[in-house]
Each structure stands twice: as C-alpha cells, then as structure tokens.
Amino acid sequence: MPSSPAPAADPGLEQRVGEPTEYVGRAAVALQADPDVLEKTGRLIPVGESATEYGFTDLDGSQPIWPPAKG
C-alpha cells in the first residue's frame, strides 16, 4: 500500500519563504511563450520581475515580489 505524504512541518512556510508553485509555473509559461527569451539566457529572473514584465498574477490576483522589501 502506498504511503501518504508526510504533513508539512509548517503549513504556512511557503508564504514566508518562497513563491507558490502556480506563480512560478505561470512565469515558466510566460518565458516559454516569449520569442525573445534567448536574450535572457544566463540570468536569474525573479518571478515577480517576470510577473511585472509579462502581466501575469498569482492565483489570488497579486504579484508578490520575493524576496520582500526590507522595511
């Protein structure tokens, strides 16, 4: 019988230390559809930067930026 995945140690961890999987996936789709994507070769591109450039949002309609600005 397959085992169930272990519960996350901290269910809210994703909201504090990273971007939701769906948001990252939307960035990948946007980059894949960009005919000029090769101009970005060799760069680390933050998802929030891609969201601003390509106009996509997270599931809740926001465009979170990671890492968050230090206040």
Layout of SSEs?
Elements: H1 13-17, H2 21-33, H3 47-54
Helix pairs in contact: 2-3
- The chain-level structural class is mainly alpha
| Continuous helix count | 3
Percent of residues in β-strands: under 5%
Structural Rg: 15 Å
Mean pLDDT over the full residue set: 81
Q: What spatial form do the alpha-carbon principal axes imply?
A: globular
Q: Main sheet, how many strands, which sense, barrel?
A: none
Percent range for helical residues? 25-40%
| Domain unit count | 1
Low-confidence stretches: none
**What's the end-to-end separation, in Å?**
49 Å
Q: What is the ordering of alpha helices and beta strands?
A: HHH
Question: What is the β-strand count?
Answer: 0
Overview in brief:
With 71 residues, this protein is an all-alpha fold.
Characterise this structure.
By secondary structure, this protein is mainly α. It has one domain (18-71). Helix content is 37%, strand content 0%. It has three helices and no strands. It has helices at 13-17, 21-33, 47-54. The protein is globular. The relative contact order is 0.17.
Keywords, please?
single chain; 71 residues; mainly alpha; 3 helices; globular
